[in-house]
Amino acid sequence: MEEHPHRRYNPLTGDWVLVSPHRAKRPWQGQVEKGSKERRPSYDEGCYLCPGNTRAGGKQNPDYQQTYVFTNDFSALLKDTPQGNYEEGELFKTESEQGICKVICFSPRHDLTIPEMSVESIKGVVDVWQKEYEELGANDFINYVQIFENKGAVMGCSNPHPHGQIWAGRTLPVEPAKEQQKQKEYYDKYKRTLLGDYLRAEVEKKERVVYSNDHFVVLVPYWAVWPFETMIIPCRAVSSIDQLSDEEKLAFADAYRELTIKYDNLFETSFPYSAGLHQAPTDQEKHPEWHMHMHFYPPLLRSATVKKFMVGYEMLATPQRDITAETSAARLRDLSKVHYKG
Questions:
Q1: Hey, how many other C-beta atoms are within 10 angstroms of the C-beta on 227?
Q2: Is the pLDDT score of 245 beyond 70?
Q3: Is pLDDT at 342 greater than 70 in this prediction?
Q4: Which H helix or E strand runs over 146?
Q5: CA quadruple 334, 337, 341, 342: dihedral, nearest 10
Q6: Residue 196 belongs to what H/E stretch?
Q7: Residues 287, 189: contact at Cβ < 8 Å?
Q8: Would you place residue 35 in the very low, low, confident or very high pLDDT band (cuts 50, 70, 90)?
Q9: Could you tell me if 125 and 104 are in contact, meaning their C-beta atoms sit under 8 angstroms apart?
Q10: How far is the C-alpha of 66 from the C-alpha of 280, rounded, in Å?
Q11: Quick check: helix, strand or coil at residue 252?
């Protein structure tokens, strides 16, 4: 299988990925370009996310010194959306969607990213994620809280200031809904979480594990689609972030930092990605089937400038990758834990 085309199954979603390792027997041939070493100031008077500055929507940020959260001035979801729906037969359906969108500034410093922050500062971000999940989820019209981060312009990040977002809505989004179904089917059958069993198998095999501490494991999933796709999974089967202890949150922050340092070191660039937490819905139901986890989807393949997006066959048929998950994991695992900037 390691040398020939094969398909791998994703038990979390029911999807498949085509793996073609014969196309990349020497995946690191040719020029490997490094990213430009852009130097940003710690404060940018033109940045609408920096402390004290006026945002694009006209409101002014406080002189915040730690993590700062505010309601998005240009929210994709609105709290006061009137309820309603429209149907014309079976082919035309529309329904209103209600929700709240927030922005989280990870740090007051404009020049930092997660791998350049301290573990304690990143734990402050995790603390805010926990608080927002609890508070947003307590609204009777919020049934799912999606926490995510887009890093880098290539992933649609409109501002380099370190920040993430939360979109909390009434309905369960498409990807979490797939995971909800598959995890529930597995839990109903075995009375154990799908990711709990998967994680135990991966730790025993070791070949796709990138980093681990006492409470979290970073690995390249067996079914990875993106070249250096990873997941952070808690060792304890918690269904959502509000169940993490202080010690576990610190370990989560450590895993987050270690992974992103390795990402940056891979091509000595500020490594772009989209990342986000998948966890239990906030629909006031119990969800023992859910095992919280964080996905990372980075687009870089061979260098700081060679990107791998879903195109052609991948958009029209099935996702495909050339390098195996095992090769990606080994590549990341062997990188230094010290950030390349020193």
A1: 24
A2: yes
A3: yes
A4: strand 144-151
A5: -130
A6: helix 194-205
A7: no
A8: low
A9: yes
A10: 28
A11: helix
Give the per-residue pLDDT at 305: 80
Do the Cβ atoms of 318 and 16 come closer than 8 Å? yes
Contact 19, 324 (CB under 8 A): yes
The crossing angle, in degrees rounded to 10, of helices 246-267 and 119-137 is 120
> Annotated catalytic residue: which of 6, 110, 161, 163?
163
Looking at residue 27, its pLDDT comes to 43
CA dihedral sign of residues 47, 133, 64, 75: positive
- Where residue 268 falls (left for φ over 0; alpha for ψ -120 to 50; beta otherwise) is left
Which is it for the CA torsion 224, 179, 13, 200, positive or negative?
Answer: positive
User: What is the reported pLDDT for 143?
Assistant: 98
Q: Are 323 and 296 in contact (CB under 8 A)?
A: no
In the chain, the amino acid numbered 261 is I
Please name which of 260, 39, 277 lies closest in space to residue 151, comparing C-alpha atoms.
260
Question: Which tens digit of pLDDT belongs to each residue from 50-65?
Answer: 999 999 889 999 999 9
Instruction: Please indicate whether residue 163 is annotated as part of the active site.
Output: yes
Residue with tokens 């000595």: 268
128-187 pLDDT, tens digit per residue, is 999 999 999 999 999 999 999 999 988 878 799 999 999 999 999 999 999 999 999 999
Q: Which domains does the chain have, with CATH numbers?
A: 6-333 (3.30.428.10)
231 phi/psi in degrees, rounded to 5: -135, 145
H/E element, 294: strand 293-297
SS3 content of the chain, % helix, strand, coil (to 5): 30, 20, 50
User: Is the backbone of residue 36 left (phi > 0), alpha (psi -120 to 50) or beta?
Assistant: beta
